[in-house]
């Protein structure tokens, strides 16, 4: 199948665009979406860009009952010179296929998916925000659509891409948040689905998040599911700690999501010769570093916020105020550097950015 076979049906009723100062996150969707179907024996067929619209599904569709679904999240940015840039999109489609494999969903052709995404962005190019800090959030996902209740991998799927113009996660710049170390619920266990971007992981985390919010915290820090001792992630972000000049992040152990922002931060730190270590880290170790004064900074990383500094960490009766509750120097530098590479404002030494060429679309 070639990219030329992507059919394009344009909307006859374009929506009014939202105010760029009031975008929020994931509230507005562009005029078009991409969809293709999978049929057992035929593979992925009928790739098309169509007006954004509801989809018809049988109530017996497997995704509703057994959660056979995966998703991705990435962003397109508008550079000051008008170019549209994607951040490491090929990594998202590689990870989509790793998630697919874990959920017994057939592979999606990563090149076709990227070409489909580029064409979709071109069709909706007026939706890529231009105000600094704003971007176009992109949500590719797969759902199992076969209408039978047997617990078995589906024979039918949709692969879709929808897009939403979003504001800067922190309108007033990054600021530290309060985090609750969760010691009752767990997010994932090794051998489970923690390293796949699949719906059930998030549904299962809502309860802990809700309880933390009611106690005045913005998110939870997840500990491992076996010993409830080793640090895994913060909310739906990866987590880093700077202790005595070295940056530590939990190693990818099978239950942690392999974040593209995480990987990019590690590359930036190495580029700057800042020592960075991926290993198992216990919460006791963090508390010990806090009490002996060597816990310098802590932050979460992910596509939506890029960096979310941790100002306050509550664990088992102990309140740890990190860097006086202020954003650390290194956290700020990582944020400033990555966001300016993403906006095309700074040299891109790693060739991370992929330009969406504003060529004529053949269709
Ligand atoms: C998506 C996600 C992340 C961050 O991944 P990025 O590729 O950096 O956006 C981290 N943890 C979880 C659980 C996630 O779902």
From TrEMBL:
User: What keyword terms does UniProt attach to this protein?
Assistant: Amino-acid biosynthesis, Aminotransferase, Branched-chain amino acid biosynthesis, Pyridoxal phosphate, Transferase
Gene3D superfamilies in UniProt: 3.30.470.10, D-amino Acid Aminotransferase, subunit A, domain 2 (3.20.10.10)
Q: Name one GO molecular function term.
A: branched-chain-amino-acid transaminase activity
Question: InterPro entries, alphabetically?
Answer: Aminotrans_IV, Aminotrans_IV_CS, Aminotransferase-like, B_amino_transII, BCAT-like_C, BCAT-like_N, BCAT_family
| Superkingdom field | Bacteria
Q: In which pathway does it act?
A: Amino-acid biosynthesis; L-isoleucine biosynthesis; L-isoleucine from 2-oxobutanoate: step 4/4; Amino-acid biosynthesis; L-leucine biosynthesis; L-leucine from 3-methyl-2-oxobutanoate: step 4/4; Amino-acid biosynthesis; L-valine biosynthesis; L-valine from pyruvate: step 4/4
Q: What family does the Swiss-Prot or TrEMBL record give for this protein?
A: Belongs to the class-IV pyridoxal-phosphate-dependent aminotransferase family.
Q: What is this protein called?
A: Branched-chain-amino-acid aminotransferase
This protein's species is Paenibacillus konkukensis
């Amino acid at each position: 199948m070639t990219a030329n076979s992507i059919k394009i049906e344009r909307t006859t009723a374009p929506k009014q665009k939202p105010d760029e100062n009031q975008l929020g996150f994931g509230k507005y969707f562009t005029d078009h979406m991409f969809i293709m179907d999978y049929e057992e024996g035929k593979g992925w067929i009928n790739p098309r860009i169509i007006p954004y619209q509801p989809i018809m599904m049988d109530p017996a569709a497997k995704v509703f009952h057994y959660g056979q679904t995966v998703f991705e999240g990435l962003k397109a940015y508008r550079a000051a010179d008008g170019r549209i840039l994607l951040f490491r999109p090929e990594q998202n489609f590689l990870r989509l296929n790793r998630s697919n494999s874990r959920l017994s969903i057939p592979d999606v052709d990563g090149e076709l998916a990227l070409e489909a995404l580029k064409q979709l962005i071109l069709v909706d190019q007026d939706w890529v925000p231009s105000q600094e800090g704003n971007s176009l959030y992109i949500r590719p996902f797969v759902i199992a659509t076969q209408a039978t209740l047997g617990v078995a991998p589906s024979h039918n799927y949709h692969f879709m891409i929808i897009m939403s113009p979003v504001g800067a996660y922190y309108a007033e710049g990054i600021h530290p948040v309060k985090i609750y170390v969760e010691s009752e619920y767990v997010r994932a266990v090794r051998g489970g689905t923690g390293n796949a971007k699949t719906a059930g992981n998030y549904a299962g985390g809502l309860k802990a998040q809700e309880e933390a919010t009611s106690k005045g915290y913005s998110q939870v820090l997840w500990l491992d599911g076996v010993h409830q001792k080793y640090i895994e992630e913060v909310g739906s972000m990866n987590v880093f700690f700077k202790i005595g000049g070295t940056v530590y992040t939990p190693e990818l152990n099978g239950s942690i999501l392999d974040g593209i922002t995480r990987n990019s931060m590690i590359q930036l730190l190495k580029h700057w010769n800042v020592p960075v270590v991926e290993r198992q880290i216990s919460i006791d170790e963090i508390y010990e570093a806090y009490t002996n004064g060597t816990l310098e900074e802590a932050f979460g990383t992910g596509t939506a916020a890029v960096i979310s500094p941790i100002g306050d960490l509550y664990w088992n009766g102990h309140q740890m105020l990190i860097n006086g509750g202020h954003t650390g120097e290194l956290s700020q530098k990582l944020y400033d550097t990555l966001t300016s590479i993403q906006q095309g404002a700074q040299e891109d030494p790693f060739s991370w950015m992929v330009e969406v060429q504003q060529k004529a679309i053949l269709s």
